[in-house]
Amino acid sequence: MKIGYSVEGSTDRAFISGLKLRWCANAIMIEGRFRGSTGQSRRREIAKVCLELSHNGAELITFLSDSNSDDPNAWRKVAQDEESRVPVQYSHYVIIGICQRNVECWLCADTDWIAKRYNRSTEEFRVSNPKGIFNTVLGISYRDTREEEIAELVMQAPLHRWLHNKSFEAFYDKLWLYSNKSGCTIENLREG
């Protein structure tokens, strides 16, 4: 299976890589090129990225973006906007994932687990925007993005506990539905 994807940054790419390794290890990943410098220009390119990835044989195309808002429902509006930009001929195999605030909110959704994994206080991760503490704890920098460690974290995380984050739950539900008609079988997090 070939999975095309378009993300905003290295942590998002590592997140997608971790899910691929966890659920569809033999899949080939194809990264869509992003030519813009802002979220708005990225959204304008959704149709171009779909065309490019489809042309390269992608059987599933995933976009992962941040809502970049403290509003707990902002991700829904961003998701609707991005989904409206997907050309109809690709809509049956495009999955849009919008993180409530940012992907670190998903990575730290189970504050007890992440704190224990890194021998830190749970309260450090129990904040509306855990990006700062996540980057500090993992030692993420411009030169060292720690993508392998983040992918490994996603592979090992108790993802069923992340379902209380509504934006992750929506992304998971779309992946689950798609997996029922594809070559990848993802775990049923509802049974965890």
Question: How would you describe the overall organization of this protein?
Answer:
This protein has 192 residues and is an alpha/beta fold. The protein has one domain (2-108, 146-186): Rossmann fold, CATH 3.40.50. It is built from 10 helices and 4 strands. A 4-stranded parallel beta sheet has the order 2-1-3-4, sandwiched between helices.
SSE run: EHEHHEHEHHHHHH
CATH architecture: 3-Layer(aba) Sandwich
Molecular shape: globular
Largest sheet: 4 strands, parallel
List the helices and strands and how they pair.
Blueprint (H helix, E strand, L loop, with lengths): L1 E6 L2 H14 L4 E4 L7 H6 L1 H10 L4 E7 L7 H11 L9 E6 L3 H5 L3 H7 L4 H4 L5 H8 L8 H10 L9 H14 L13
Parallel strand pairs: 1-2, 1-3, 3-4
Helix pairs in contact: 1-9
Entry summary:
With 192 residues, the chain is of the alpha/beta class. Helix content is 46%, strand content 12%. The protein has a single domain, classed as Rossmann fold, CATH 3.40.50.
Question: Which descriptors would you attach to this protein?
Answer:
192 residues, alpha/beta, Rossmann fold, 4-stranded parallel beta sheet, globular
